[in-house]
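Putative permease
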Amino acid sequence: MLISVLGFALMNLTVKFLGRLPATELVLFRSLISIVLTVYFLKRRHIPLFGNQKKYLILRGIFGVIGLTLFFYTLQKLPLGSAITIQYLSPIFTAFFAIFILGEKMYKIQWLFFAVSFAGIAVIKGFDPNISLPLFLMGLGSAVFSGLAYNCVRKVKDTDHPLVVVFYFPLMAVPVMGIISLFNWVTPIGWEWGLLLLMGTLTQIAQVYMTKALQNAEVNEITGLKYLGVIFALGFDFLIFDVQYRPMALVGIAMVLSGVIINIIYKSQKRRKALSAQTNIS
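Structure:
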């Protein structure tokens, strides 16, 4: 998951530099690169392309496409730290949907941790003049659809290879974004081609390692590590884009991170106690 976080952080940076191109076009290029790389590695390993649980694989692709498109748009319009912090509410929605999709247990105190994170988002929204209501709702929508996509990934963890799961994103994205891009196409120029290639490659690496992580850990525990990406984003904003955050906006970001980190620690302790109890019984 840490490799994935670093890959996504660098990908987010390339998206910011590609602000001249429509978000839908970025998703299309990212998907074209991903589908070529994924098919190559699937063929090389003699793994069937279309997997077993096609229903959840297709849903994973659809939810992922919607979530990423909304996220790319907010990345282009907002400071990196603000856009990523809003989108990183996805672990909360992931944990919520996991109750119904995966049957995972949620403890009452976890809702308090999540409330702290949501309160942090409210503080950021209130003290960051760059965040309009439409952009805020787009970021929130991205988090919701990401949460749904992560649960679909976990749903197929015992039946489908991580590369197959990754393959379904571009499989859904290429035809949809290809059609949309026909109506708002902007031709890349010069260094933009190199950044597009880099964006696609970084995304592929990040997606594969994220999928492996999600398939080898409890979903509402491991996804919280994504919040480390906020640290990278704030560093990029400060060092590269000269973004100055108001003190209360930084407090809001800290609240978001605190809620999730405390939840990770709590979940880990509960899991260790459960495993210890099972061992003692045996």
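The mean pLDDT is 85.
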